[in-house]
Amino acid sequence: MNQKVSYTNLIKTEAKRLGFLSCGISKAQFLEEEAPRLEKWLNKNMHGEMRYMENHFDKRLDPTKLVEDSKSVISLLLNYYPEEKQNENSFKLSKYAFGNDYHFVIKDKLKSLLNFIQEEIGEVHGRAFVDSAPVLDKAWAAKSGLGWIGKHSNLLTQQVGSFYFIAELIIDLDLEYDTPVTDHCGTCTACIDACPTQAITEPYVVDGSKCISYFTIELKENIPSEFKGKMDDWMFGCDVCQDVCPWNRFSKSHSEPLFNPHPELLSMTKKDWEEITEDTFKKVFKNSAVKRTKFSGLKRNINFLKE
């Protein structure tokens, strides 16, 4: 077995041991297909107020600009599908935000993986990325054979659907590269038909500025009044396009204790949410990604839903 193959096997085995669902590897090079697509999406202003999407255009498309002399992009998936559900009579929270903030949970696992690579293989330089730097996560995961990008623009796999986080290690080590898988969306349009705000403007294109997740998390101003009654009770994020996807019938519960929800979170009713105090907010969302909206942001969202 040549060195590249044995290093690759070593890394994939350790990724599994650390709890990642799967691991795929691509050559670190310019994302040619993505460049015109990203440019068109930005030109149509589909990123709304997310001005940061305009920054570092070249870095988004070329990993060698993020990590000098990088050779490989290691993409990793981490399941977050919860076993339990919220109260039926509740304002809704995206499943990914039930437990501890994924940025910290995954960052720790990525650091462990990088340390392992350095200990087992030697002088390898790299950086860990969890949705916080200009990296096109889904494009790299698809390139690495971990799934295909569905019509709702999320990464999909036949085995486990789409309820998982994507993260990367970009390193200066040559490895064996995986190949993309085929698209299995077929003629299905479940996600397009179900989107409450018609944010999926055509298959594979999501207008971010119409997405409920954008309104409830990214948008700092008031939610536009034309979306009154169209928010489907979502107060933080939105899972509609994933919930209706036939491939998510195969989702299995995660086994990461840090993603388990605060017990109060699941039992809260609409009335509880409407009366939530800052103290309760701090307690229920102590280490949660929901802190991004702050108490005032969550209150704004709840008020918009109940008016």
Automatic annotation (TrEMBL):
Binding, [4Fe-4S] cluster 2: C195, C211, C238, C241
Cofactor: how bound: Binds 2 [4Fe-4S] clusters per monomer.
GO molecular function, one term: metal ion binding
Top-level division of the source organism's lineage: Bacteria
SUPFAM superfamilies linked: alpha-helical ferredoxin
Subcellular location as annotated: Cytoplasm
Signal peptide: none
Segments forming domain 4Fe-4S ferredoxin-type: 173-205
Function: Catalyzes the conversion of epoxyqueuosine (oQ) to queuosine (Q), which is a hypermodified base found in the wobble positions of tRNA(Asp), tRNA(Asn), tRNA(His) and tRNA(Tyr).
Family the entry assigns: Belongs to the QueG family.
SUBUNIT field: Monomer.
Protein name: Epoxyqueuosine reductase
Natural source organism: Flaviramulus basaltis
